[in-house]
Design a protein that fits this description.
With 446 residues, the protein is an alpha/beta fold. The chain is built from twelve helices and 15 strands. The chain binds nicotinamide-adenine-dinucleotide.
Length: 446
């Protein structure tokens, strides 16, 4: 996600490692889904990309490289310049991005199948068998709901919402996707990464998990400063990282990866959270309303605790990792090993055999679709891990102990009343151009 230039690399934030696994597990059910990818004699799987930024562009290429008969047939983005840059990247010289072979033959997106604005997604979805949803996460609930309504298979990026009402929408649509047997993969790619899968298989070596730690500490990400002539809506959409209705704050947008690993290994979700956070260095006008650090204690029903920290502060120590501590030992996810409490190695994953999880998400998804199998139902876990990260944000913003059930059902909906360029988002700058920042002890979590 480098300023407006689509990149295929996954390393921008996963600088320590890239990683993945099957949220909610692989469903071993066969049966052809309702999505009609075998229309007539042509068995090409048609793909639409919604959200043509860095990740969407990368995911589209990974879909084309999934080794199945795939064609990109439609693209939608709020902005024409983003769509054009993505199209150029996909069809242009891909060598820079390490992509070999000629993918251009697999791209058939004429002008009439390029859609812009807020409602382009509906038209692009209608043309495809599989949709890639990679806009900022604030739009994910309505895009996912529409894709499920239209009976399509789905790859959607994490997080899948930015507020509890969005999470609830995704949970409802996730159920409908299951009924319709639509494959849904969520871009929590550690579920699709070999080392994580091997560690997960052996998690009983550490006995009962009593606590865990998760980190996403690094310098932070891009800023897209306000430009002359932009409406407030366009400005926030371009500089989306810094607005909660679009991004959810970095605890949701990035740290979800690490929190999700702990939920996955625990096999459950926290019942409450409390923590603290604030803004030490993120004080500019283009830094919107998000914090630059959060520290949260997530409590699970069995009494175990996840201590989670995420920090976006330049020149501080960097770490993106997870650690699980059990009655008999520890799982070190980054080092990909399991040790007993004396430090003896009980299992070491051979890192030379690591896969490329971003690519593997698409290899597995498209293989299932090509075979007419129903294998992936990641949306429910995606929604619940998203909710976990939102719970953490509510705890750090309010400084209160926040309970899962109350948070999920509190009615918080950060979305604007309408999606048009002239609509005013709910969070607006004051006369000096500054946005309202949460104050623990004052801010209500809902
Ligand atoms: N799994 C991972 O490791 C990983 C890595 C990077 C990004 N992501 C996720 O991918 C998503 C996109 O991130 P990115 O880095 O590509 O951001 P980006 O800003 O590069 O791209 C987002 C694109 O969506 C477009 N867009 C915004 N609103 C839209 C709408 N309503 N309809 C259509 N298009 C719209 C934007 O114009 C932009 O082109 C985020 O959810 C992010 O968290 C995941």
């Amino acid at each position: 996600m480098q300023n407006n230039k689509p990149s295929f690399g996954n390393s921008r934030r996963e600088f320590v490692k890239t990683t993945g696994l099957i949220s909610g597990g692989v469903i071993a059910a066969p049966l052809l889904s309702q999505a009609n990818f075998h229309s007539g004699a042509d068995d090409t799987i048609k793909v639409a990309l919604i959200g043509c930024g860095g990740r969407g562009t990368g995911a589209a290429v990974q879909a084309l490289r999934s080794k199945q008969k795939v064609k990109l047939v439609a693209m939608a983005d709020a902005f024409r310049d983003r769509l054009d840059a993505s199209y150029k990247s996909i069809t242009g010289d891909l060598s820079e991005a390490g992509v070999s072979g000629d993918l251009t033959k697999m791209v058939d997106v004429p002008e009439e199948r390029k859609f812009t604005g807020f409602d382009g997604y509906q038209k692009a979805i209608a043309l495809a068998d599989v949709v890639i949803l990679a806009t900022p996460p604030g739009f994910r609930p309505i895009h996912f709901e529409e894709a499920v309504k239209q009976g399509k298979h789905i790859f959607m990026e994490k997080p899948v919402a930015t507020d509890p009402e969005g999470v609830k929408k995704v949970l409802v649509a996730a159920e409908e996707a299951k009924q319709k047997k639509l494959n849904v993969v969520v871009g929590l790619q550690r579920h699709y990464q070999t080392s994580y899968r091997e560690l997960f298989k052996r998690k009983d070596l550490i006995g009962d998990i009593t606590s865990a730690q998760a980190w996403w500490n690094n310098d932070g990400v891009w800023v897209r400063p306000r430009k002359e002539g932009q409406t407030e809506m366009e400005y926030q959409m371009r500089n989306w990282y810094y607005f909660n209705w679009l991004c959810g704050d970095h605890i949701t947008e990035q740290h979800i990866h690490n929190i999700d690993v702990i939920n996955w290994f625990k096999g459950s979700y926290p019942v409450k959270a409390q923590g603290f956070g604030g803004r030490e260095v993120r004080k500019g006008k283009d830094h919107g309303e998000i914090f630059d650090h959060h520290f949260v204690e997530f409590h699970y029903a069995d009494g175990s605790i996840l201590n989670s920290q995420c920090r976006h502060i330049p020149k501080t120590s960097a770490k993106v990792d997870e650690l699980l501590i059990g009655t008999k030992g520890k799982i070190y996810c980054g080092a990909a090993n399991i040790r007993d409490h004396k430090g003896n190695v009980l299992y070491q994953f051979d890192k030379k055999t690591e896969n490329e999880p971003y690519q593997n998400e698409h290899v597995e998804l498209f293989a299932a679709i090509a075979k007419g199998e129903y294998k992936f139902a990641d949306a429910e876990n995606g929604a619940k891990s998203t909710m976990t990260s939102i719970l953490g944000r509510m705890a750090t913003y309010s400084g209160q102990v926040v309970e899962w059930d109350k948070a999920l059902n509190c009615g918080l909906n950060l979305q604007p009343t309408a999606y048009t360029w002239d609509t005013l988002p709910k969070s607006l700058p004051d006369a000096n151009g500054n946005y309202k920042i949460a104050i623990p002890g004052v801010t209500k979590y809902y």
